[in-house]
Amino acid sequence: MKLFLIVSIILLLSANVVYAGEADVVEVYVKKTGDNVFHFSVAVRHQDEGWDHYADKWEVVAPDGTVLGTRVLHHPHVNEQPFTRSLSGVKIPDNIEAVTVRAHDSVHQYGGKTVAVELPR
Question: In the chain, what percentage of residues exceed pLDDT 90?
Answer without folding.
Answer: 56
